[in-house]
Amino acid sequence: SEVKKIAVIAGDGIGPEVVAEAEKVLKRTEELFGYKFELERGLFGGIAIDERGTPLPQDTLEMCRNADAVLLGAVGGPKWDNNPKELRPETGLLGIRKALGLFSNIRPAVVFDCLKDASTLKPEVLEGTDLIVVRELTGGIYFGEKFRREGPQGEEAVDTCVYNVTEIERIVRQAFEVAQKRSKRLASVDKANVLETSRLWRETVNRIAPEYADVEVEHVLVDNCAMQLLRRPSSFDVIVTENMFGDILSDEAAMLTGSIGMLSSASLGEGSFGLYEPVHGSAPDIAGQGISNPIATILSVALMFRLTFGYEEAAAAIETAVKNVLDAGHRTGDIAVDKSKAIGTTAMGDLIVAAI
Amino acid sequence: SEVKKIAVIAGDGIGPEVVAEAEKVLKRTEELFGYKFELERGLFGGIAIDERGTPLPQDTLEMCRNADAVLLGAVGGPKWDNNPKELRPETGLLGIRKALGLFSNIRPAVVFDCLKDASTLKPEVLEGTDLIVVRELTGGIYFGEKFRREGPQGEEAVDTCVYNVTEIERIVRQAFEVAQKRSKRLASVDKANVLETSRLWRETVNRIAPEYADVEVEHVLVDNCAMQLLRRPSSFDVIVTENMFGDILSDEAAMLTGSIGMLSSASLGEGSFGLYEPVHGSAPDIAGQGISNPIATILSVALMFRLTFGYEEAAAAIETAVKNVLDAGHRTGDIAVDKSKAIGTTAMGDLIVAAI
Ligand SMILES: CC(C)[C@H](C(=O)O)[C@@H](O)C(=O)O
Ligand SMILES: CC(C)[C@H](C(=O)O)[C@@H](O)C(=O)O
């Protein structure tokens, strides 16, 4: 079959460890399904700041542009937290999203059976929770003009939140399409009672909704959504929202499942190209100890197979392998009830590879 | 004792019902403690739109300005939801906050014993949760310039988020002072890795923190805070944040206690003047049935006594009365386990009045 180029960005903290296991999975699927992957590796985030003086080196960006998909571990850590803006890992993250046109961040929040009790929510409330947050990723207050100025009351800081109809339409359409493949319920989240950008957002949703007549649309104010996620998480199917609200709500949604360490995410643009990464961060506190959980990153590979390559069979095979390994009782420390029986990162990766 | 002027704004939905019970409490404390209250009533919100063509009539605003404190029921309802902006209840809300200089919204999120099981969080996670969100209320993206324009990609909407050091300093100082009277832990919430306003916010907190050396300060990113509120709610004491983040996080915090129907809030300015209201909304679905719960509004009176009038003894007496009535097993429908035994709004108000 056709060669697929995958840009692999290990990043910082536990990034390299978990990505190494995901690479084993890629290799195994080549053997089993006859795929051909060409992996290229690039520096990004804190390590790129240290070695190259910038979080997003030009060659890393070029590598991503030439690839069919990107697999990202995690970036950031306390070491770079007090750096000036252009020397911070998150500046690289915002830069790569914008440069690659990844306007849509898709984050499933599901409850893993083996982690049912890990949530701080009552099991009966959580029952059946399986939602996706579709977050706009390259617009809004993240990318608007920002500056300081002297005002009558002293120094002032300004951030600008801008959205145009084209930006709103493309993300909302994508959310409608995701909803059509699921339970056909879309919650559009905004703050239309206060923000002009939210009013344009809501108008746009209402304008294109008739084209997706099979999808039931609900408008939810962001403050209310933060409450309803807690009160009735299982009633949500697809949530679509702008960049800043999506940042907050997708983290809230992920955390309430109790499975945050197992969740994967996709950042997509117009075509099939996508960047895939675990929802969890670089966990600098446990980096290098070989105890991190590679499952979210391995499941990011499954997501890449499904959404970018259309390798549905292999995607399902990976997901089933993960499920079987968990059902057999194997756990890394973060998800183990009996920590003394926990296995390490490579052991978990090997078990999943063997189970595919 | 000195006459205190209280501006009473019943508002919409269940507002008039719950405010009527709070007025009984005011009356009872006059008899018991020798206070003198002069109540004036004004139109505000949806009812003001209907009767006067504006959500915030000038005479209502004047009445508030001449008062020592304002007691507000609730405003809004579906009837006005699709009105143009200047004819919507929330425009009145934003207008009154700005006009009265109420830059600080203080919202306690505590768990009521009788509602321990009403939360969707596990009781062991909730145990000991008692936090206050101090939200900046008259700045940020709520009040910055907003407009539409034609751009290269079609219609664009713009919202501007502005903060100056003076605005940040006064709210942060107030939060430090609240923290000093409590467990001396302050979490300042921002998005300093992305927003310029957040960077100014964080710099300001760090600059004045040494003046409150007994308070332990933690900076938390807003997305992380949305998660930590779920994971470790009881570890928070005072949370201070800007307007939009505060809107979202204070609702999340209130909902996780399970006690949202019982929580009161204060909006304060420079002096002792304040506006007091329940956290819950106007609940149009149950308005006029006499079944709403007046406790949050009655507790708003206690908060007014404590924060504006310095009537600590009476504030405590009201709170104890509420506790005793609840301990005796009386419940309105919203908090009753056995709905068939629920009592109505006036019955609950009368019991509390009798218990003071
Ligand atoms: C690191 C930060 C800039 C980033 C964001 O806010 O987008 C992160 O929180 C995320 O959600 O990917
Ligand atoms: C009604 C709305 C404008 C208001 C706000 O966002 O401030 C409300 O949500 C609140 O928190 O008081």
TrEMBL record, chains A, B:
Binds 1 Mg(2+) or Mn(2+) ion per subunit. InterPro entries: IsoCit/isopropylmalate_DH_CS, IsoPropMal-DH-like_dom, Isopropylmalate_DH. GO terms for molecular function: 3-isopropylmalate dehydrogenase activity; magnesium ion binding; NAD binding. It is an enzyme of class 1 (oxidoreductase). Its EC number is 1.1.1.85. GO terms for biological process: L-leucine biosynthetic process. Pathway: Amino-acid biosynthesis; L-leucine biosynthesis; L-leucine from 3-methyl-2-oxobutanoate: step 3/4. Mg(2+) binds at residues 223, 247, 251. Belongs to the isocitrate and isopropylmalate dehydrogenases family. LeuB type 1 subfamily. This is 3-isopropylmalate dehydrogenase. It comes from Cohnella luojiensis.
